[in-house]
Records
---
Amino acid sequence: MSELKRTPLYDLHVSLGAKMVPFAGYDMPVQYPAGVMKEHIHTREAAGLFDVSHMGQVILRPKSGQIADAALALESLVPVSILALAEGRQRYALFTNEDGGILDDLMVANRGDHLFLVVDAACKDADIAHLRSHLSEICDIEQITDRALVALQGPQAEAAFARLVPEVADMRFMDVATVSWQGVDLWVSRSGYTGEDGYEISVPASFVVEFAKALLAIDAVAPIGLGARDALRLEAGLCLYGSDIDTTTSPVEGALEWAIQKARRSGGERAGGFPGADRILDELANGATRRRVGLLPNGRAPMRAGTVLYSGDKRVGEVTSGAFGPTLGAPMSMGYVASDYASVGTVLEGDVRGKRLPVTVAAMPFRPSNYKRQTTKRDQ
């Protein structure tokens, strides 16, 4: 087994009493002394600071100098409208394969003269190889290795971050901006993976400890580990690549068709032209045979990944993620069921250690998300 990598914040995690575990090839904090439950609630009520430096940061710079060329090039790999992405904005995207499966999910930002991508930690080497294999003639592709990435999430994230950098308060959900803190450029997006308002912040690795300590010095901010992050994203109905979506799931099966804009659908001005288009466009028109759904077990025991779902004696699906939801106050899961059983309110049974227990198909997110979508002064 290869040696685990460490993020630039490793020593800080250890000094804060974190329990470190292997994750996506890195030694990462799963929890701090407060514990997963308290960390979860703190993020929902105040602000949590997450180390996400294990994720991949990539710049696509068009050789022509025209950002539209980079956008159109990336559109050959994703079923998403990148050309329509305005400068200073970000959107969710999916790399698909020729079978219509999902290679990874990612965030794409238009930063004026280049596109900035944040890709999944476990897939970043494959993603960068994929980009280089297909886009190198049109774009210079640069993996950013000298910057860390942190996320500040929760209802008090804006107030906390604005104490250090006041202008971030004017950003809205999915805005991106470069701001300065103590002479250092921070690449900021107003986004996250918790269902809360917040920011993801790319920081030069040599300054990230100082920056993290400045945030943690604010009373509302506490360090949060991977354990709470997983329950937070599950309550928010957000997928984990490798668990809830992978090469065997299509965007439509994964209930991610909201990420495919009209321009890339049948009849759109740039319809198709991405890997797996035939299958994906057909499923958009006619539906898929199975769907990712929310699931609420009727008892107190979580139904975890691998739990088989039945309707009577018929196997109709499987759980892909499951945990207790601290905010929900109950267990929650997501998984795939045959489309005939995907309607909210459908009661199924899950096989938990040989015992059939009732579970109900439910809408996601399991609790309302709190993104800052309202207009700001510059939109008026």
---
Amino acid sequence: MLSMKTAMLLLALAFGFTACSASTDELLPTQDDNSIGNSHTYNSLISKTTTYPASYAEEVEHKGRVERIDYATRDYAEGTGRSRTNTAYVYLPYGYDDNDDVCYNVIYLVHGHYGTASTTFEAEGGLQRKVLDHMMENGDCAPTIAVSPSYNYGQPTANYVDADPYCRALPTELVNDLIPIVETRYRTYLTSPDAEGIEASRSHRAIGGFSMGGVTTWYALAETFNAFKYYLPMSGDCWSLGSFAGMNRPQQTAEYLADIIRQSPYAGTGFYIWAASGTSDSAYRETLVQIEAMAQLTDVFPLSNLTFHEKDGARHEFRPTTEYVYNALPFFFPPQNATGVKMVEVSNKGAANNSYGIDGRKFTGQGIVIENRKKILKRQ
């Protein structure tokens, strides 16, 4: 029988392993991981999100494309281990096929209850795809592939609370089954489709989700922390200690998560949690109360590791999530030629007139200052 490592290598060959090489300092986990995206800070725990330009909701001339992947996995939720098939959708920016020397970061975006794998790139007339198209075209962030997986296999549970075991199982499924396929089929920073390779490339990987997808994001931090550096929980608290535990037991939840991080090699600058919700969102308080409890543990969750971002008037629905992604992606994966993005709060007064330039490109927005200091990493 083939060993697991051998099987994974054969899988990579079967899909055409097209990974890029990361720099040496990103291949080994360290106590102070100073790779892409670490030199940015907010000066307050809570800040307002920046609205993307109205044109970002329109189609661009040169659109990226979305591909479907059906992949073999196992039943991790019920623990039977039986074989099954799941589906994910992959967004590739325009020009992916022409830029074969460019590496791509990857963000996994998990839908909420009643959603499926197709929701992320189809809801609201494909709004998330349109925003990503504009971001990639304008160089708002480094080249990034977005992946929409699903915890419900296309069949949402009748009650969203009943989805909890499936949300908890998804990060394990991603690490064991989907990441090795996606990140070997496409040009990413994954150099080998095994646990060591996934951990070595974690600085180029983010996960986020809305509602129950936010719950899933917290599970990813709690149970697959060595696979993802960046976390984008949107309108959802951590359920590791029980349903709604982040809201009902915020201090215990905060300590639980802090202990996981303290015991890892990535305490310090090796992770970032960019949480978000709308001020009229039904999950606003349950998300914020947990964040506020976490922020009290300053040895683990200082502002350089944890912030909360709110959109005024936004409710518990899909559309605001596109704004959260718009704000978070440049923070996780700064634009080409930048070592990091330094975010500082500025007065909203006159914000529409604030513009900042990078390599001839102008960025206009509220409270965003981008410091340019690093060249793009390319495949070797």
